[in-house]
Sequence to fold (328 residues):
Amino acid sequence: MTTEKPSVLVTRKLPQAIEIRLMELFETRLNPTDEPMSAEALIAAADCDVLVPTVTDKLTAPVLGALPGRVKLIANFGVGVDHIDLAAATARGIVVTNTPGVLTEDTADLTMALLLSAPRRMVEGDRLARSGEWVGWTPTFMMGHRVSGKRLGIVGMGRIGTAVARRARGFSMSIHYHNRRRVHREVEAELEATWWEDLDQMLAHMDFISINCPHTSETRHLLSEKRLRSLQPHAYIVNTARGEIIDEAALARCLAEGALAGAGLDVYEREPEIGESLRRLDNAVLAPHLGSATREGRIAMGERVMINIKTFVDGHAPPDRVFPADGL
Ligand code: 8YV
Fold:
């Protein structure tokens, strides 16, 4: 690398403090309009050493193949990297990094918000309270389901899944989880968590399900129609991971038919599109991908992006490198 500052292309508008520091450290091109870039626009603009994309940039094998040869690092702003073809990036000699750890607590908080909102009918209640049509309290009015004492099944017990479990313990839920690997015995003991080797067995016994695993080719439609229908009809499902993990059309059908009690969703299969069949349901609480959307979280994500770029351009191994085999 020459003594010139490395050039960095940032595809979306980031918090101002991060953009200022990126401009100080590197030869940075920002996206002040915040318009999402098409694949063609991204390829045309990517004459740089480092690309800083987000979940809205689809870095498929053909897109990666068409990038100028000087691109050597993709420092993703976000932890999930399912929008980047990691194998194709590796084959092209591009290093990929993400931003783990710094959005764990925020995402777990939003998971709990959805987990509480759906059974306690918070959003439905808010709509009624604002409508002016509320006729007053009655003993059987707007009854939901109790959270306390219920069984929560966490699918994917990584950083975020564990943070959800800690919070759910505070709401007196019992913790169950399915993960390829069992978590450390001390963590299991602290959370009084039960490991289910068999996902199907766990699903059939839970009152609440929280999806906290990454989206990979193995987890696409992990919650298939068959599995959704194997849940108890009083069960609620919460997803703050990736929309593709649940068969969204099947979920809408199950919710409409009463095969499931409700859902709290932050992510969707075809963002920002959300199917009408889901949008019209009262028993689905829908958030627009807000998992890490706190000022603190987004600054911390930007910090990790800069640490990854800086270490890489200084000739060191960036701390948050992701490899194709990583399940996350
Ligand atoms: C981010 C997320 O906001 O980090 C992730 O994987 O899902 C979100 O919280 C988004 O991905 C930023 O690129």
Remarks:
- The pocket of 2-keto-D-gluconic acid is lined by residues 54-55, 77-80, 103, 291-292 (CB under 6 Å).
- DSSP finds 13 helices and twelve strands in the chain.
- The first strand starts at residue 7 and ends at 10.
